[in-house]
Amino acid sequence: MILVIGGVHAGKTEFVKNCFKLSDTEILEASETENFQNAKCLRNYHILIKKLCNENADFLEFTKRLIQENPDCIIITNEIGCGIVPIDQSERLWREACGKSACLLAEHAEKVIRMICGIPTVIKGECL
Q1: Which superfamily is assigned to 2-124 in CATH?
Q2: Whole-model pTM above 0.85?
């Protein structure tokens, strides 16, 4: 598994397309696909976590299942923990859920890449 994390519009998707030679059709929206077991790449994982939180589903169990059933997947997610803490409790809980999910994904990923201003930095695993 490869985890690509970074801020909004940090160049995550373009990086994944170029680095791993994926087409637009191979990069699926995480919150819109039921067939994650065969996906090469899931993007906007943080939106899926929000959907699961809104449904009171167990986001950690879902993430564990993803890790087990698709260990070669590339996951793209926004880093949402930097900035002002939201006043709304549901937003705070979602933010915490995203952090916990990202930690679990990073723990099991062979490579974690953080994107800043379109520049990839490998924070776990071998260099690109």
Answers
A1: P-loop containing nucleotide triphosphate hydrolases (3.40.50.300)
A2: yes
